[in-house]
């Protein structure tokens, strides 16, 4: 009897255990299923969220592309307008300054210009324009008849004509030394044979008293105009002193004498002669002259087939001998 009760109790315990285990397992499965459903719902919500964000970003990107396209078109139009305005200003500047170049051969016109309140600003702008022009070359050769060339040449020609008159030289030496410094710098920056026309005008500007008309300028290049201008200014003793005291002036003269263009060498010789014939100026640079004088080059030019170059070189050699230089 006791044995049967024990067996019955054991069977009851086993049944209860099996039933309880199945219930716990079902509960866990249900709980896990609910979690999976929650995760799936969260993923669905995340997908909808990111999809909405993607659509928003795509719309924004489309608008930005359209805006960039419109801005690029506006930029191209602005560049084209700026280019047209620059071409117009250059063409207008070339025409105006060419006319002004011609009329400044009159001393009365030069005096009237210098008597105005815009003269100093004009010469400052002239120096800046010439400097920009030379820097833009970078070894390139611009067409001689281009508006840009004519504009710069005309500006340099105006300066040359102003420097051809005593009051003009005095004005430039006293009030526009920045322009003188710019021209001296540009003469050194230009390569031999480059822009010969402009070089000579800057040189002549510092020395001679001749008025220069447009037709008188040869078509050799940029050097001419700068050298003529420097050549003009050096007639003024104060001007000669100023440029001769500029750093690197003597080496610049010797460097110009190595230029392949005969006119550049001719005006360089004349400026050297201006220094040699002015005792007060020459005394300060006599030692440097004698130590660095390119005598073989000057002797070669004294035998040149170019009669003007030959004569200028021979005259310089005679002046140097008179000063008892080692020639």
TrEMBL record:
Alphabetic keyword roster: Coiled coil, Signal, Stress response
GO cellular component: cytosol
Cross-referenced InterPro entries: ARM-like, ARM-type_fold, HSF2BP
Ranges in coiled-coil conformation: 33-85
Signal peptide positions on this chain: 1-21
Entry annotated with the keyword Coiled coil: yes
Name of the featured protein: Heat shock factor 2-binding protein isoform X8
Organism: Heterocephalus glaber
Gene that specifies this protein: Hsf2bp
